[in-house]
Amino acid sequence: MPRVFWxxxxxxxxILLAMLTxxxxxxLMGQPSFxxxxxxxxxxxxxxxxxARDVQDVDWILGDAPSPDREVMRxxxxxxxxxIACYTGLFLALAALVVRKGGRRRIxxxxxxxxxxxxxxxxxxxxxxxxxxxxxxxxxxxxxxxQAIRGPSTAKWILAGVTVVLLASSxxxxxxxx
Length: 178
What we know:
The chain contains six helices and no strands. With about 180 residues, it is an all-alpha fold. It is elongated and about 70 Å long.
């Protein structure tokens, strides 16, 4: 008798984590919204703050403290912690499925799991740095505070990209030569 896809517990976990990740992303993109005063270099204020280069960028995105955009960013960062937990769990669950395949895929799965967990850790560091900057007036914002956001953010995006590439490469079948 053929195996039913839904019977496998790990597959159910992956599907659950994927649905939770999508739901958390939808929440992240929903209300509250930034005001029209927010003018990031990138289209999204959250992404713009992750790659802010100087105090002028922070001013364009958040304005001076206190501002409604700073409070919106605070709410979005707290929701982002849930999103981080969901996508990190999804990366680890997918990596565990890849490890179970054995062979070269075992190494690929372990590497994907490490990179996925590191991406989540960098994202947490980035969120904490953003939360630290929200209560600070622009005149007191230092380049080190901005770099504390930009460094982990860059690492997060690189590690997440590497994780996706590793997981996708595990889907490639290599024919066995006889």
